[in-house]
Amino acid sequence: MYSVIVLLPLICLGASSQPLTEGQRLFTIAVSRAQHLHQLAQNLFSVFESSLQMEEQRQLSKIFPQDFCNSDYFISPTDKHEAQRSPVLKLLSVSYQLVESWEFPSRSLTPASALRIQLSPKLSELKTGIHMLIRSNQEDADSFGETSLPHLAPYVNYYQNLGHEESLRRTYKLLACFKKDMHKVETYLNMSKCRLYLEANCTL
Predict the structure, then answer these.
(1) Please, are residues 95 and 35 in contact by the beta-carbon 8 Å criterion?
(2) Which of 54-58, 105-109, 147-151 has the highest mean pLDDT?
(3) Cα–Cα distances in Å, from 108 out to 60, 148, 156, 171, 189?
């Protein structure tokens, strides 16, 4: 019994001590940053939701499932099964689009706060990292270059003067979409990393 307890950590240590390739290192950093942004998005949404009255929460929670995010117009996998069948470059390119589409709106997600201030530089860092991953995986496929990425004007109507009720609805939608999109980015990057490097702890 004791020999098993002693040997398991040694086996794990041996497996984890393998040197990372440059591609693995880039993916590990990108996945970590995506996970952090997804957590920030969840925190921002929770803080906003907790500031609402119960009736406001109830009404808004009914609106969002029937509403659309700007990212729904991107050509991207419609579900997990399609994502699993998609080329890695497509997943990376969609992730790039999603991150890029939030660089401007992230500055106005909420009133100035420690959480919001972190978003803009973190989105820029992740966008740069994904761009590096696209370039490093693009040697044998040129169909997903930067020229194919649509440069939309995300959430342009959000920056209008709105009444209180409409403002709540727009803010709720914006935060909900941000959380949804960061979850997509985290999922696509994880999926790409797992498929390229077949790591033992990957779950697709």
Answers:
(1) no
(2) 54-58
(3) 19, 28, 12, 9, 26
Residue type for 17, please?
S
- Looking at residue 18, its pLDDT comes to 63
**DSSP label at 201?**
T
Within 10 angstroms of residue 143's Cβ, the number of other Cβ atoms is: 10
CA distances from 187 to 3, 16, 71, 158, 182 (A): 38, 23, 15, 27, 9
pLDDT by residue (tens digit) across 35-59?
A: 999 999 998 888 888 888 888 888 8
Q: Identify the pLDDT of residue 203.
A: 61
CA distance 189 to 25: 13
CA atoms within 13 A on the CB side of 184: 25
**Model pLDDT, residue 155:** 46
In contact, 91 and 130? CB cutoff 8 Å: no
- What is the Cα–Cα distance from 152 to 70, expressed in whole angstroms? 9
Q: Cα dihedral angle (109, 128, 184, 21), rounded to 10 degrees?
A: -150
The number of C-alpha atoms within 13 Å of 194 and in the hemisphere containing its C-beta is 14
- Identify whether the C-beta of residue 28 lies closer than 8 Å to the C-beta of residue 196: no
